[in-house]
C-alpha cells in the first residue's frame, strides 16, 4: 500500500535545512583548506621578509593579502552557493516511481520507475543527523545511473519514499 501524501505527483523542493547543512560542510572544508595554506603563506612571507629589503616585505604583504582575499572569496562562495543549488533541486513521487531534478548549469532530470528499483537505502551521517536530514539511495537494474542518491530530504520523508518505492504484493517489479 502506498502513502498517498508521498505519491501525490506534486513536485517538491528539498528540505530547506539542506542549505544550512551544505553551508556547515562548506565552512568546515574552507577552514581545512585555509588553515594549512595560511601557515604556508606566513612561512613564505617570513622567509621573504627576513632579508630586510623593502621589496620582499611588500611581496610578503601582497602574498598575505592575496591569501586573505582568496579565503574570503572561498568562504563567501561556500555560504552563497547552497541556496542557488537548493533553488534548482526538486523531486516528484507518483504511483509509477520518482523523478529527480538537479543542476544549476547542467540540469538533469532522472525518472526512476518503481519496476526498475532493486533496493533502496536511507542513510544519515552525523552532520545530517544534526539537521534531521537524510539521503535516499536508490539502486536500479541496469548500468547507467544504477545508483542514484537524493540528499537533502527530511529523514522521515526519505523513509516514506523508500517504503513507497519498495515492491509490494501488487507490484510488477522483479
In short:
The protein is of the alpha+beta class. The protein has four helices and seven strands, in the order E-H-H-E-E-E-E-H-E-E-H.
**Termini Cα gap:** 17 Å
Helix segment tally: 4
Classification by helices and strands:
alpha+beta
DSSP strand (E) fraction? 15-25%
- Characterize the biggest β-sheet: 4 strands, antiparallel
Overall tally of domains:
2
Structural overview:
By secondary structure, this protein is of the alpha+beta class. It folds into 2 domains: 69 residues; 75 residues, no CATH class. Helix content is 48%, strand content 25%. Helix 1 packs antiparallel against helix 2. The two termini are 17 Å apart. The mean pLDDT is 88.
Question: Topology, please?
Answer:
Layout: E1 11-13, H1 17-49, H2 54-87, E2 90-94, E3 97-102, E4 108-113, E5 117-123, H3 126-131, E6 133-140, E7 147-154, H4 155-165
Antiparallel strand pairs: 1-2, 2-3, 3-4, 5-6, 6-7
Helix pairs in contact: 1-2
Feature tags:
single chain, alpha+beta, 3-stranded antiparallel sheet
Amino acid at each position: 500500500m502506498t502513502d498517498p501524501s508521498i505519491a501525490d505527483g506534486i513536485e517538491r523542493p528539498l528540505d530547506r535545512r539542506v542549505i544550512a547543512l551544505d553551508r556547515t560542510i562548506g565552512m568546515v572544508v574552507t577552514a581545512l583548506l585555509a588553515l594549512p595554506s595560511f601557515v604556508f603563506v606566513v612561512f613564505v612571507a617570513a622567509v621573504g621578509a627576513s632579508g630586510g629589503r623593502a621589496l620582499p616585505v611588500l611581496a610578503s604583504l601582497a602574498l598575505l593579502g592575496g591569501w586573505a582575499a582568496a579565503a574570503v572569496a572561498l568562504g563567501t562562495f561556500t555560504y552563497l552557493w547552497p541556496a542557488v543549488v537548493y533553488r534548482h533541486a526538486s523531486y516528484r513521487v507518483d504511483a509509477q516511481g520518482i523523478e529527480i531534478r538537479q543542476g544549476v548549469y547542467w540540469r538533469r532530470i532522472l525518472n526512476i520507475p518503481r519496476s526498475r528499483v532493486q533496493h533502496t537505502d536511507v542513510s544519515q551521517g552525523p552532520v545530517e543527523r544534526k539537521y534531521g536530514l537524510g539521503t535516499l539511495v536508490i539502486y536500479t537494474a541496469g548500468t547507467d545511473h544504477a545508483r542514484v542518491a537524493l540528499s537533502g530530504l527530511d529523514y522521515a520523508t526519505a523513509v516514506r519514499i523508500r517504503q513507497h518505492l519498495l515492491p509490494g504484493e501488487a507490484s510488477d517489479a522483479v
